[in-house]
Each structure stands twice: as C-alpha cells, then as structure tokens.
DNA sequence: GCCGTTTGGCTAATAGGCGTAGCTTTCTGG
DNA sequence: CCAGAAAGCTACGCCTATTAGCCAAACGGC
C-alpha cells in the first residue's frame, strides 16, 4: 500500500540501469518485468508512467544517442582537422566500451515515417552533425562531405560493434588496430580534399 | 493425422524463409510459431526436429556465415590486390543487401566458452580467413595483417549495418559513398605495406 | 501380409512476457 | 475536509517457448 514514488523519468532511469547491468545485450534483454522488480512494483504499474515497452526503449535510445553526441562534441571542442577526428572517434569508442548496452540502444534506427520517432530522428541527425562539423575542417568539397562522413561512421561504428560482439580475438592488440583504422580514415578523408595538404598530421603519408 | 514430412533440415529451411520474409529484422523476429504455421504443424511438433529456438537460430547463423564466406570467396578467385579487395567488399555488401535478414543473423557472435557454438566459431573464423587471404596479397608485414583485416571488416560491416538500419538518408548516393570507402580502405591497406607501391589500381574502381 | 518398434504428429499444461480493465488506496488542491 | 486525480494493485487475455504424455503413421523383420 505504500507508494513507490515513480515518475516517467524515474522509470527511464531504472530502465537504463537494467540496460547497463546487462552488458552488450542489456538493451535487447530489457524487459518491463525487470524494471518493475528493480522499482519494487508490479509490472502493470509501470503503465502509469510509460506508454509501452516500445516507448520506453525509444526514450532510452534517445538518451543514449544524446549522450554519444555530447561526448563526441566535448571531445572535439578546441580541436580541428586530424586531431579532432581522432579525438572524436576515440571518445565514440570509449563511450561504446564503457556503456555497451546503451551503445547497442543507439543502433536502433528511427522509422522515417513514424511520427513517434521524430525526436529520435532529430537526435540522430544531431549526432551525425558532429561528424560533419569535424570533417568540414578538412576543407572537402561539399559533395564529398557526405561520403567522408559515411566512411568515418562506418569505420568507427563497425569497429566498436565488432569489438563489442566479440568479433576480435586476441584482445590485447585491439587498441593498436583502432589506431591503424584511424590512420586510414584520417588519410582517406584528407585525400578527398582537392588541394592535397591535410590540415593536421597524416601518420601514414598521403598519396597524389 | 497426415504427416507433414518434416526433418531437421526442412525446419531450418523454413526458418530461413521466415527470416528472409522479415526484412532486416527477420532474424530478430524469428519465432517457432511462424515456422510451425509455415509448415502446417503445431508449434511443439518442431521439437521433434530441433532442440530449441536457440539451436535453430544458431544453425541459421552458421548457414548465413557460410554463405557469406562462399560469395566472398568466389568473388576473389583469380584476383589479387586492390581488385580482389574491392570485389570482396562489393560481394559482401551485395549479400547483405540481398539477404538483410540473413546478414543480421551473421552478426551474432559465438560464445567463446560455449561448446555448442564450436561450429559457429569455426565458420566465423573461416569467413575472416577470406579477408586475411586477400590482404596477404598486399605484402603486409605479418604483424600488420591483423590490423588491416580489422579495418576492412569494420569499414564494410559498419557500412552495410548503417545502410540496412536506415542510417543513411538520401539513398541515391550510397553506392558512391561505398566506393569512396573502398578507396580509403585500399589506399590505407596499401599504405601499411613497407615498400609503398600498391599492387593494383588506386583510383575509384568499377561496379555495375 | 502381419506385428512391434520407432517416429512424428497431437493436445494439455507450465512459465514468462506485454498489455488492458477495473478496483482501491493515497495524495493533493481547493 | 473532502472530491478527484494519481498511483498502486489483482485478474485477465493473448502471445511466446518448452515439457509431458498420448496416439497414429510408417517401417523392419519375418
């Protein structure tokens, strides 16, 4: 008969705790029953604060995407060019490794047609804008920026998803492999600029 | 009272049909009930042919990984260097786009400790070996091969997962972006070789 | 051709998930 | 102080997977 003092935000916070506790599959394994247990409440009571499990998952995803945007942004303030790109990618990977469940949540793509996904679409677009901003520092032609952004996103996202999924044996050397990937991306993006001369280091040299 | 004529293989075949019918989320949405409905059989009857849903999913995953290995292999026979890498990556992406559900199945990593995952581990290792073989043609030092393999896997896998997940707006230009990514990977891998000179072309390659 | 065994289907039932309906209790605002 | 909103609850319906036990169809030996 006592009240648990829940609120929509509190439920989302508990959901994130459950996600964090579940490792890389924490988001996939998120369940209303677990949240209710953690809140000390019967499962149907959660519907007083949340529309559905799908809604709750969407809110968790939005928060995770915004967190990722925030760490990426703060990793690149005051930096430019290759250094900014390296810091961005490193912060991105660090967030994924520190919060694997939340990072898995960010992989949920918004439905372009569903109005309920509008804020998620916005959050996702904002996170891409951080990459765009960093790559603008390379002086790329406008029509090449999108290709560079996609390559960087693909490389970093692919790397961390493979890493989180256990796709890499020999865990010791993973940091070095990530550095090599960043070298490739930095050099590759720089090579897209018309007038050679990358604004920062190149680490592996550039090609004509 | 008539018999449906099922077998373990037939059940797996039906499972793959269900996966294929479900688009990118077909694997996540795979359910014994759907398979049973497609077979014209009650759900518990499937247990005469399959150990559990987890077993069945594992078998689907193994098949998908082997298919991916096969298309990657046949795309690279008789080719070497940059051309082989481009064809490998293109075949990889084509498989993912043609069979999004099956490609999603390949993303589940084997548990390194679970003996039931042994054949999946082997299949996954075989698929990585295709990339290793292609990259060997670049004349990399042994301790750089692993970094190059990881970078290629990360780039291609990241690209197709983002593409399948709807992470790219403006669908028209995706082919070009993939080509740009391949340019970066080819140049980046070539740059890892001690004696400059990439063995194949360096410009943007071909594609139908 | 017949009998016994294996095999492949079935129904019934358990356990756990989401979600709805409706009741009761607690808090709050006038 | 009391009415009504808010936040719990239980009971239920429907969907999963999975187990247990039954029954009929197919098959092997003779």
Explain what the structure shows.
The structure is a homodimer of 208-residue chains. Chain A is an all-alpha fold and 208 residues long. Chain A has helices spanning 8-21, 32-39, 53-76, 81-98, 100-106, 118-136, 142-164, 174-192. In chain A, helix 3 packs parallel to helix 6 and helix 4 (81-98) crosses helix 5. Chain A has a domain at 53-192: Tetracycline Repressor, domain 2. Helices cover 63% and strands 0% of the residues of chain A. The first copy, chain A, has 8 helices and no strands. Chain A binds chain B through residues 107-112, 124, 144, 146-148, 150-151, 153-159, 161-162, 165-168, 170, 173-174, 176-177, 180-181, 183-185, 187-189, 191-192, 204-205, 207, and chain B through 107-112, 124, 144, 146-148, 150-151, 153-159, 161-162, 165-168, 170, 173-174, 176-177, 180-181, 183-185, 187-189, 191-192, 202. Chain A binds a DNA duplex (30 and 30 nucleotides) through loops.
């Amino acid at each position: 008969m006592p009240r648990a003092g829940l609120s929509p935000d509190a439920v989302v916070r508990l959901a994130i705790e459950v996600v964090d506790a579940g490792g890389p599959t924490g988001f996939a394994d998120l369940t209303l029953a677990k949240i209710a247990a953690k809140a000390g409440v019967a499962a149907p009571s959660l519907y007083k604060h949340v529309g559905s499990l799908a809604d709750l998952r969407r809110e968790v995803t939005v928060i995770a995407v915004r967190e990722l945007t925030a760490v990426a942004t703060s990793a690149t303030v005051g930096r430019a060019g290759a250094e900014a790109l390296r810091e961005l990618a490193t912060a991105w990977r660090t967030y994924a490794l520190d919060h694997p469940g939340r990072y898995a949540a960010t992989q949920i793509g918004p439905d372009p047609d569903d109005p309920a996904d509008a804020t998620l679409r916005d959050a996702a677009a904002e996170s891409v804008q951080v990459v765009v901003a960093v790559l603008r520092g390379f002086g790329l032609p406008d029509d090449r920026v999108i290709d560079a952004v996609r390559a960087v996103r693909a490389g970093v996202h692919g790397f961390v998803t493979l890493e989180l999924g256990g796709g890499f044996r020999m865990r010791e050397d993973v940091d070095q492999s990530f550095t090599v990937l960043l070298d490739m991306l930095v050099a590759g993006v720089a090579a897209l600029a018309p007038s050679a001369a990358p604004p920062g280091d190149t680490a592996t040299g550039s090609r004509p």
